[in-house]
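> forwarded from #structure-qc
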């Protein structure tokens, strides 16, 4: 299983960090998780692989996590010859179908019927779905917006947990416990803490509770990059921790 950090930034627009997006590849499955503004650009920088995405999962309805989804669908319809014919599965919290309907009202019916089948699968917190014979995805409600979820993806005995955007939550630490890779938002320094996002200190508490094999921090607003994030994490978690950049590929061996 391979996990690529396509976009590690936020809506604080940056030339270095694009809004949220991640690519998870396992066997024939190619799952794009979140699709914020700039992710189509990051995909294009990697070549033709944007054409072969099989699933898109969004964590919540903030535009820095789904803003490029209509662009990607339009690209599959008009940006390649022949146009896409393979079905796409769109996964998201309850309300995803209504969101797509509202976007289609603005942009046009092509967003719901782009010439290839788009299946929408709303996932309730606590639910698990089989994305393929070997990949299982489950969701946990997290404190950010009313619909926000974190995702867990399991393949070949390995497990990746992506927090999406979240505030501090012990249940999230328990749910993530023992995962191989914890991709964790780290939005704001403690001097700017709010209950909808994590500070490095709160990421450290989450890592301490979850004890993952590897912590990858992401979703940095610029002020948090002025503090020593790694030192803060290491005060409570002595495992492997890295600060993501756009375009990193992480192999999770089966
Ligand atoms: Zn965000
Ligand atoms: Zn958000």
């Amino acid at each position: 299983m391979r996990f690529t950090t396509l976009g590690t930034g936020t809506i604080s627009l940056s030339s270095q960090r694009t809004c949220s997006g991640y690519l998870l590849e396992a066997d024939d499955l190619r799952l794009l998780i979140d699709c914020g503004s700039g992710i189509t650009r990051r995909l294009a920088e990697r070549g033709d692989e944007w054409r072969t995405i099989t699933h898109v999962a969004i964590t919540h309805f903030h535009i820095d996590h789904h803003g490029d989804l209509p662009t990607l669908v339009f690209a599959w319809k008009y940006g390649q010859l022949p146009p896409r014919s393979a079905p796409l599965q769109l996964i998201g919290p309850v309300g995803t179908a209504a969101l797509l309907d509202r976007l289609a009202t603005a942009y046009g019916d092509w967003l719901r019927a782009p010439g290839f089948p788009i299946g929408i699968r709303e996932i309730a917190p606590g639910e698990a779905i089989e994305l393929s014979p070997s990949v299982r995805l489950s969701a946990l409600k997290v404190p950010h917006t009313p619909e926000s979820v974190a995702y867990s993806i399991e393949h070949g005995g390995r497990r990746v947990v992506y927090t999406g955007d979240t505030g501090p939550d012990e249940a999230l630490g328990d749910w993530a416990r023992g995962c191989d890779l914890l991709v964790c938002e780290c939005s704001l320094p403690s001097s700017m803490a709010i209950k909808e996002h994590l500070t490095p200190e709160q990421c450290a508490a989450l890592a301490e509770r979850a004890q993952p094999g590897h912590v990858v921090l992401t979703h940095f607003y610029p002020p948090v990059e002025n503090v020593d994030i790694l030192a803060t994490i290491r005060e409570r978690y002595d495992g492997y921790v890295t600060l993501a950049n756009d375009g990193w590929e992480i192999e999770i061996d089966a």
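QC bot note: The pocket of zinc ion (ligand 1) is lined by residues 10, 20, 62, 64-65, 165, 219 (CB under 6 Å). The longest helix spans residues 96-107.
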